[in-house]
Amino acid sequence: MNIPQGQPAAVKKPLLVITSQVVRGGISGRGLVFSLERLGHSVWFLPTILLPWHPGQGKGTRITPNPADFSAIVADLVASPKLAEIGGVLTGYLGHPDQAAPIAELVKAVKRHTPDAPYVCDPVMGDRTDETDGSLYVPQATASAIRDTLVPLADIVTPNCFELSWLTGRKVTSELQALSAARTLGAERVLVTSAPALRRNAIANLLAGPRGAVVAEHAMVPDAPHGTGDLIAGLFLSRHLDGLSDEDALVRAAGSAFELVARSVKKGADELLFAEEQQSLGRPMALVSSRRVLETASRA
What is the mean pLDDT of the chain? Predict the structure, then answer.
């Protein structure tokens, strides 16, 4: 965005991120905090669990806060007048189903201070693989808590195809099925990451918004590191708060994620290289196509 000479750039409001924390790698909280700060936001970060690395990198110890302790720190935040600083909330991976209720109270508290602060729920719970139709990688009680407690509060929900199918109880193998399922969630915007693409060897991100549906599509990068779903959710939130249209915010978010993945894979990395390739977060050069989706039939 070009700022007219002599005019200061608008100050971006802090964002509250509630998700997992790893020691090594760029998934979840580590990547989100870095990316959002790179885009100009201060970030409040509340970890839901501590892991040494992404579980796909190997077995590791999991440290989950005691539910009473987690509720206590949330209560501290709810009671703080500084909560009025927050301009948006993003939640992701939960370490325990009992975390959902206090998180919901924290989201409501933010909105009491700032009613138009968007809440993004990234329902991190499972995924498909090339060999299977997908499965949960969190306990069903945790997935149910996300579905029943957090998703109904969200302004923006960002499931992948498996998560969308699990949340809605619908089959999602085509673009129109994804769009139809997304419309049943009730959120103002639903961003389906890794949605069914029209082109071969492509990745699509489908956004069902208040002014229609749009898809951002780009080439698939083989052996992509983990963390792209978290990243797109955060980038879309930031671009949305910048005042971009849904289509522009989606294209910018998808372009940054695609470029960061491609550059990381080219260097042989097994994690996203946020620090080395941070220019991709601000001004991506990657080619991402976008198109509108007719949805009359999908609303049946």
Answer: 91
Measured CA to CA, the distance from residue 94 to residue 145 in angstroms comes to: 9
- Structure confidence at residue 132 as a pLDDT band (50, 70, 90): low
Residue 81: count of CB within 10 angstroms of its CB: 7
Residue 17 has pLDDT above 90, yes or no: yes
Task: Count CB atoms within 10 A of the CB of residue 56.
Answer: 11
